Amino acid sequence: MNIERLQFLNSFDHLAAVEVEHESGYRMWVTCRDSEVGHTIDAEAAIGYALSDIDHHAKCECLASWDEWLFLLDFQRLGQ
User: Fold this and answer.
1) What CATH architecture applies to the domain 3-78?
2) What are the beta bridge partners of residue 51?
3) Mind listing the pLDDT tens digit of every residue in the chain (80 residues)?
């Protein structure tokens, strides 16, 4: 992956898929931007749902391949 693509993916506000679960066991996915994940989790908790999982949404406009996404995650971990 070239550095320009890595910089683009690192700075992009990705589309996230947040899976929440109700205490009854019912699960659903909520779509939001990465910048709104915290607010989405708080809003879902207010109506009785708990966080189950967060994933990069397959329909994100960044069009990152699986390999690019894994490389980006490794890159971000190294920077911490």
Assistant:
1) Roll (3.10)
2) 20
3) 788 999 999 999 999 999 999 989 999 999 999 999 999 999 999 999 999 999 999 999 999 998 998 998 898 888 75
